[in-house]
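Hello K.,

You asked for the raw outputs rather than the summary table, so here they are, unedited. I folded two proteins back to back in the same session to keep the settings identical. This is the first:
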Amino acid sequence: MLKNAYLSEKPDKEQLKARLKEQRLLLFKNQTRIRDSKLPVIVIVEGWGTAGKGTLIGNIINNIDPRFYKVSNFSDPTPDEKRYPMLKRYYEALPEQGKLRFCNSGWMSEITRGRIRGEISDKEYEEKIDSIRRFERGLTDNGYLVVKLFAHISAEVQKKRIKKLQDDIDTKWRVSENDLRQNKDYKECSKIFDKYLEDTNMPSSPWYILDASSEKWTELQALERLNEGIDTALQNHSLAVPIIQNTFPLKKMPKLKEITFEGKELTDEEYKEKLDALQDKLSDLHNRLYRKRVPLIIAYEGWDAAGKGGNIKRIAEALDPRGYEVHPISSPEPHEKARHFLWRFWTRLPKDGHVAIFDRTWYGRVMVERIEGFCTENDWKRAYNEINEFEKELDTWGAVLIKFWVHIDKDTQLERFNDRQNTPEKRWKITDEDWRNREKWDVYEEAVNDMIQKTSTRFAPWHILESVDKKYARIRALEIVVEELEKRLK
């Protein structure tokens, strides 16, 4: 793309001045349109070292109210950041609706630096490119405008700029080893950049190559691309997004009505004996998880009063409290609702070697939000594939992901609801919303069946816990967790 990039012809001085004034004013006006339409905008500025990326961002944001944007600078990931999936820190930087986020370098730099240093194999590169494509498509499908700019300069221009910076004692520090290596191996680096740009140049998030030979000319090109992108995004903002077919192999699962509870119960003696043995095993496995830096994510969904809390408690009792966290998920807060629906789950992922237990999960998108009308039909139908892609990212990262649906029948739920209602110390567990949701049992059952059928992938299958007898469900959950961990840690 760099060699054959179509670069606009640089205008003369007067034209440049006039067009810059026009584009700056247009961006000033567009910030109001962005805010009013709740359009989230991400501008990624990549390019050669010394191409003026920071200066370019500074010039652009001078035309925007500081309350409506933030700037993120991404360098090499820290040791702590390396303990999470690569995309986590980029998800954390996503702007709220109606705001802009400027990224001074980003996921392109992280991947291409790794390639230049020989730290990323061909296979790892292909996996990361797949992740980036899914990430960016997921953003644009969920209403984000993603503007990707690459500031391009020749080897000669880069060399002159490096020398100028090095000759001044106050700017010498700005020349990095990475800049020097790029200039020394310009042709090889150019090939790596080229391949990345071609591999991630998508209709919904294309790359724009900027001639970065002079400051004002670079700014004009960037402003024109950004303003055009905002205008196009606002025109498309209300249009439905195509629903992508699932490409991951699925595991055949039973429908809820096909599940029986007969024979799935334990005596108190059987329960106590199995509980102690399984918790001891899980405790030992947690130590091995930490030593081998394997992350564990346990996701719980289920009917109200099915016994999720007690089930989680028996697993948590076996874990070192320094190495796990339970995340009770309720309705999204305003700042969470204003971002990609998976944002609040990406930001809660565990470090490698640690455990995260989710009491309710990202599947709210295809259950509560679907049924209560909190998102559009297009949103929840797209979400099955988006969730599968999210879980694939976790699997590729190396996480053990275990998903439980805690299942009871309608009569058992009524019995437990009445018990909660009539027992003072349990009354806090029952709400009007629980009774209202019960009236929609059949609608929820249809949604749950769809969810289980469409998201039980081979790398993240659903496990159904029959929980009419809570003791049986607790033991079964512990058995599954132990089995999955032993399988991975072999």
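The second followed immediately with the same parameters:
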Amino acid sequence: MPLLIILLLLFSIQQPGMADEQKPLRFGVLSIAQPSRIFNNWQPFADYISEKTGQPVEIVIPRGFGKMAKAITEGEIDFFYVNSLVFYRLKQQGQAVAVAQMENIAGETTSHSEIFVRRDSAIENVNDLKGKNMAYISPMGAGGYLAPRALLYEEGLQSGIENQETFTKNLSNTIHGVLLGEYDAGTMCGVNYALMSKKIETGELKVIAISEPYPENVVGAREDLPQKQLQQFRELLLAMPDDPAGKTVLQNMHKMKIRAFVKYDPAMESVTRRLLKEGNL
């Protein structure tokens, strides 16, 4: 009987550790895409990380900045992929630390936004957008709002005051809306515009302005995660291009304009800070 009791006690002590090993790592993705599409795009990445860590990886898709911030605060997300503006806001709130930075398919860690109009419109430059309806992607977008809005303000046009701001929440909606004349002008990341131009005929559009560079997306983590876990995740991401399986996963992510994940440069935050000031945000 004493031996049985001892064995039961040992088993009860081991159980929590066993449960912790099986606890899924939760990876949040903040995106304007449909949830089903996000899952399809990110599942190979989740499977890769799971195989490398021996831990299940669960994809979590909060819809909007507020829900993402809440999920991080309540410990429902461990790591996450967000644009640089969202990361900056989360870090300012003490909710996030950087793990790595996205390098886009152009091989850059920054991008530019492009403002485009119909070729047959009378709009030739930013000044002609006064009183017009401007289609942005999202109010929390780095390339879909922050950078182009900063450009307009720098050119002397107070976006949202001297023209109308509309948020389409969708890349294709923005392009189609300008083509159909629903909006006078549209804007998005230049890399995304090039990718979308392979799917949608944009020959009737012309680019009239290009923004200053803004930082590309960031992989972040909850501020309270153990440093060892954070470092392990970082090393996995940075090593993906040199691992055959990781390289295959990255190649499949080109459609999301992701080429690789590289070391995070804190100096990028000063770029976001400047754009916020220029855009009066």
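Residues 236 and 243 are 10 Å apart (CA to CA).

Happy to rerun anything if the numbers look odd on your end.

Regards,
P.
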